[in-house]
């Protein structure tokens, strides 16, 4: 018997469980196709954001357990050549902590000259490395910045490093990364300074996206009833700016965009909790230890590192990746009764 999900047929077994059709890409049983790869390359970070990491940082990963630069490059190559990945973003922790980040970028660029490559970073130290990363082949940067109020920044990140972040943002623009995007996580504190952050981003000609906070904090303090929502944010921003809905660039893009004061400037809002977009998810994640994580909110991880180091072929690694993604869960289930956050926090999974 054949069933259809989002346009892709799947064949059901005798027990009613769908079997993966013989397609080369990273499809799941709901018909979604993963084309966006997120690669975490470290669990370490130069900040300790309260919604991400505990004050003491995450438990360290032994160096031999981390994927090497050559292993990361090989897996990215497999993802592109065998699995249909069209975009790669390197995350952490903080990817700038890896001294071989330029080597990773350059290795991927040599193999795939047109592949969009980006990083998500807090921008501390980016002013010193932006030129080298641009020369290595990095296309763009997403920078985490929740406020331009220095005292609040220090309280949220447990580090007084706002000037370093702002210098990194300006260096990214100077060295031609396009676009430069700023990501801000919504909570009661950041909501109070959201207008100032948007004005700063407009002045600096960088794109701002606000993100509803998800239950991925290491300290487990997130509470659904107290969470700040996209609607809360719109109410605050409209006190200073004229906003008009612009929609999504494409169906898989997580941000709903709004034109600001008639445009062309826009602000994005990723309502990952209140307006979940799981049905259009096109992401697959590779952790710093070399496991495939099909869904951000699933504790299921499939080990590729052991197979990689055991000498298996690219075809075998691709097959394991396909099998892992076929079993991807439908959504995060935050509003479901009995919802339990994943064991790993965002910093350990990779943004």
UniProtKB/TrEMBL annotation:
<feature type="binding site">
    <location>
        <position position="181"/>
    </location>
    <ligand>
        <name>GTP</name>
    </ligand>
</feature>
<feature type="binding site">
    <location>
        <position position="49"/>
    </location>
    <ligand>
        <name>[4Fe-4S] cluster 1</name>
    </ligand>
</feature>
<feature type="binding site">
    <location>
        <position position="144"/>
    </location>
    <ligand>
        <name>S-adenosyl-L-methionine</name>
    </ligand>
</feature>
<comment type="similarity">
    <text>Belongs to the radical SAM superfamily. MoaA family.</text>
</comment>
<dbReference type="GO" id="GO:0046872">
    <property type="term" value="F:metal ion binding"/>
</dbReference>
<dbReference type="InterPro" id="IPR006638">
    <property type="entry name" value="Elp3/MiaA/NifB-like_rSAM"/>
</dbReference>
<dbReference type="GO" id="GO:1904047">
    <property type="term" value="F:S-adenosyl-L-methionine binding"/>
</dbReference>
<feature type="binding site">
    <location>
        <begin position="283"/>
        <end position="285"/>
    </location>
    <ligand>
        <name>GTP</name>
    </ligand>
</feature>
<feature type="binding site">
    <location>
        <position position="278"/>
    </location>
    <ligand>
        <name>[4Fe-4S] cluster 2</name>
    </ligand>
</feature>
<dbReference type="Pfam" id="PF04055">
    <property type="entry name" value="Radical_SAM"/>
</dbReference>
<dbReference type="InterPro" id="IPR040064">
    <property type="entry name" value="MoaA-like"/>
</dbReference>
<feature type="binding site">
    <location>
        <position position="120"/>
    </location>
    <ligand>
        <name>GTP</name>
    </ligand>
</feature>
<dbReference type="GO" id="GO:0051539">
    <property type="term" value="F:4 iron, 4 sulfur cluster binding"/>
</dbReference>
<dbReference type="GO" id="GO:0005525">
    <property type="term" value="F:GTP binding"/>
</dbReference>
<dbReference type="GO" id="GO:0006777">
    <property type="term" value="P:Mo-molybdopterin cofactor biosynthetic process"/>
</dbReference>
<dbReference type="InterPro" id="IPR013785">
    <property type="entry name" value="Aldolase_TIM"/>
</dbReference>
<dbReference type="Pfam" id="PF06463">
    <property type="entry name" value="Mob_synth_C"/>
</dbReference>
<keyword id="KW-0342">GTP-binding</keyword>
<keyword id="KW-0949">S-adenosyl-L-methionine</keyword>
<comment type="pathway">
    <text>Cofactor biosynthesis; molybdopterin biosynthesis.</text>
</comment>
<dbReference type="GO" id="GO:0061799">
    <property type="term" value="F:cyclic pyranopterin monophosphate synthase activity"/>
</dbReference>
<feature type="binding site">
    <location>
        <position position="51"/>
    </location>
    <ligand>
        <name>S-adenosyl-L-methionine</name>
    </ligand>
</feature>
<dbReference type="InterPro" id="IPR050105">
    <property type="entry name" value="MoCo_biosynth_MoaA/MoaC"/>
</dbReference>
<feature type="region of interest" description="Disordered">
    <location>
        <begin position="1"/>
        <end position="25"/>
    </location>
</feature>
<feature type="binding site">
    <location>
        <position position="52"/>
    </location>
    <ligand>
        <name>[4Fe-4S] cluster 1</name>
    </ligand>
</feature>
<protein>
    <recommendedName>
        <fullName>GTP 3',8-cyclase</fullName>
        <ecNumber>4.1.99.22</ecNumber>
    </recommendedName>
</protein>
<keyword id="KW-0501">Molybdenum cofactor biosynthesis</keyword>
<feature type="domain" description="Radical SAM core">
    <location>
        <begin position="29"/>
        <end position="244"/>
    </location>
</feature>
<keyword id="KW-0456">Lyase</keyword>
<comment type="subunit">
    <text>Monomer and homodimer.</text>
</comment>
<keyword id="KW-0004">4Fe-4S</keyword>
<dbReference type="GO" id="GO:0061798">
    <property type="term" value="F:GTP 3',8'-cyclase activity"/>
</dbReference>
<feature type="binding site">
    <location>
        <position position="93"/>
    </location>
    <ligand>
        <name>S-adenosyl-L-methionine</name>
    </ligand>
</feature>
<feature type="binding site">
    <location>
        <position position="281"/>
    </location>
    <ligand>
        <name>[4Fe-4S] cluster 2</name>
    </ligand>
</feature>
<dbReference type="InterPro" id="IPR010505">
    <property type="entry name" value="MoaA_twitch"/>
</dbReference>
<feature type="binding site">
    <location>
        <position position="295"/>
    </location>
    <ligand>
        <name>[4Fe-4S] cluster 2</name>
    </ligand>
</feature>
<keyword id="KW-0547">Nucleotide-binding</keyword>
<feature type="binding site">
    <location>
        <position position="89"/>
    </location>
    <ligand>
        <name>GTP</name>
    </ligand>
</feature>
<comment type="function">
    <text>Catalyzes the cyclization of GTP to (8S)-3',8-cyclo-7,8-dihydroguanosine 5'-triphosphate.</text>
</comment>
<dbReference type="InterPro" id="IPR058240">
    <property type="entry name" value="rSAM_sf"/>
</dbReference>
<dbReference type="InterPro" id="IPR007197">
    <property type="entry name" value="rSAM"/>
</dbReference>
<dbReference type="InterPro" id="IPR013483">
    <property type="entry name" value="MoaA"/>
</dbReference>
């Amino acid at each position: 018997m054949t069933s259809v999900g989002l346009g892709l047929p799947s064949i059901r077994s005798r027990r009613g469980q769908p079997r993966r059709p013989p397609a080369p890409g990273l499809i799941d049983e709901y018909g979604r196709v993963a084309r966006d790869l997120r690669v975490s390359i470290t669990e370490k970070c130069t900040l300790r954001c309260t919604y991400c990491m505990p004050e003491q940082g995450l438990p360290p990963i032994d160096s031999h357990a981390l994927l090497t630069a050559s292993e990361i490059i090989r897996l990215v190559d497999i993802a592109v050549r065998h699995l249909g990945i069209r975009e790669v973003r390197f995350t952490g922790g903080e990817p700038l902590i890896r001294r071989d980040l330029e080597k990773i970028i350059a290795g991927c660029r040599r193999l795939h000259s047109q592949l969009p490559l980006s990083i998500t970073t807090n921008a501390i130290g980016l002013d010193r490395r932006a030129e080298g990363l641009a020369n290595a082949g990095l296309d763009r940067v997403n920078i985490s910045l929740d406020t331009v109020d220095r005292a609040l920044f220090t309280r949220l990140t447990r580090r007084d490093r706002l000037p370093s972040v702002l210098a990194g943002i300006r260096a990214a623009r100077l060295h031609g990364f396009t676009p430069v995007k700023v990501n801000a996580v919504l909570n009661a504190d950041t909501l109070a300074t959201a207008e100032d952050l948007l004005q700063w981003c407009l002045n600096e000609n960088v794109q701002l996206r606000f993100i509803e906070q998800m239950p991925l904090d290491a300290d487990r303090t997130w509470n659904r009833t107290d969470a700040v929502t996209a609607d809360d944010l719109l109410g605050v921003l409209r006190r200073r700016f004229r906003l008009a809905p612009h929609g999504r660039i494409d169906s898989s893009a997580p941000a709903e965009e709004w034109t600001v004061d008639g445009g062309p400037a826009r602000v994005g809002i990723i309502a990952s909790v209140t307006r979940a977009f799981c049905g259009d998810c096109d992401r697959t994640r590779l952790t710093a230890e070399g496991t495939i994580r099909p869904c951000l909110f699933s504790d299921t991880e499939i080990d590729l590192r052991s197979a990689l180091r055991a000498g298996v072929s690219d075809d075998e690694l691709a097959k394991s990746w396909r099998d892992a993604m076929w079993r991807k869960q439908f959504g995060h289930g935050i509003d479901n009764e009995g919802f339990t956050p994943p064991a790993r926090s965002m910093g350990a999974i990779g943004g």
